[in-house]
Amino acid sequence: MPVVYYPPPTPPWISTSSGRMALLFGGALASAAFYFYMTTKEPSKHREGEEGLYTVPGLQNIGNTCFANSLLQALASSPSFVNWLNNLDYSRVPLRKVQFLMALRDTLNGLNYSKTPTASATAVIEALTYHGWNIGLGREQDLYELFNVFVTTWDDELKCLRMVLRYSLSHVGGESRSPSSSTEEPASGDESENSRETINNNCCRVRSDDFAFLREIFANCHQDLKQTASIRPPCAGTIASQLQCCQPDCLKKKVRYDEFCVISLSIPKSFSYIQVTLDALLRKYFTVEAIKDASCDFCKSQFQRSNGGLMKKQGFCKLPESLVLRIERIEFSPTGGSFKRSDHVKFPEFLDIRDYCFNHSREGEYSRGEVHRHFTKHSLPKIVTGSATQSNLSTDALRQADIMLQRISDSIHSKNFKYELRAVSEHLGGADSGHFVTYRKALDNVSNFWFRTSDSHVTRVAFSAVEASEAYLLIYERVHSPPVPQKTFSDIVLD
Question: Where is the USP domain (predicted)?
């Protein structure tokens, strides 16, 4: 006999329309409660260390402030920014004069190994409001524009710190002395041997006091120079731009130096259907440019030339500790409308910028590379200590060995041109609206973990997720190699 399945009777509270509505409403309410729990619970999985601190805390969204939260998270990942703010001397000026710098310092410190899972950008926004900036809550704004606001604001406050670091020599070393005021004139007619000895001793004592006074002056100036250098923001660098005349009978050069805190890189339209790399954008930015309809001042005054031609070359002259790069994403159509470029820009975790420096010589680098490849195939003559053996070494061998040592030294110091990626900010959405998130590292260099920060929600991710993002703002930290003692060829022979 076949088994017949009879479904259970429908409950009376579902059979009615009001019951079905209650079921749907209850399910929606349960889903909303689950989503609220998942997005607001404490990220205990990010606690590390014995003290249970949060490695990378989140930031509360207090009204469409994702742009500010993302920028603060990016700056908090840079050791040079955090150390710069912590090392500033705020005690020399009134606190209201450095309100923004102190608020930024406290906020960035709170975004690294904090006892609380979330922080707030309220103090930073209030400090910007005090300086007259209209950072309206509830309105979407751009992360790059906010960074420019940061730069302008801390420049205004740093002026107060620079004013108190002016060199003051009047109170150094007490009252200055001079030989005329310290020596006593002998009485008229008294030219005895004792009086001459007394005058000579006084002169020697005065000269000694004057040298001590000058030493203290120079020590004070040196200290002031160090403090002035410490005030310089870590993202501040210098670009040198050279204009050279193209006429063979002139070839005069003119160099201009411009400071920068961020470099904006545009994506050319010709890159629309090829793989875009950060290296290609930097080469496009620092490429040599020919200006046809222009002439140098000397050609205009001496030869009355108006279109002799100029060659423009630019490159890094002073490297910043923290290199901030912005990739322009918003463009405008001929009709006036704006649209967003969603091209994926491939960026490295370690960036070498030697080729973008103003005084870097590719020809010299190539010649040293040829010498290095030569010595990998042909061994050097064996060197034995002893004056007789050393005298038999040819001058050519010594010169070649010095070139090889220079090549090794250059390869060691080339690390000073390398930068490590610390943070990547990404914009999700269209040209008019969207959401900012930041991928960042922890402040220490021990754990090589990456974190995705989206307001108060923080998750650990792999670097592959960082590489796949559409980068809008990148922050690189300069890598410093430990100092290596220089040795000449003769030192190695004697060793």
Answer: 57-479
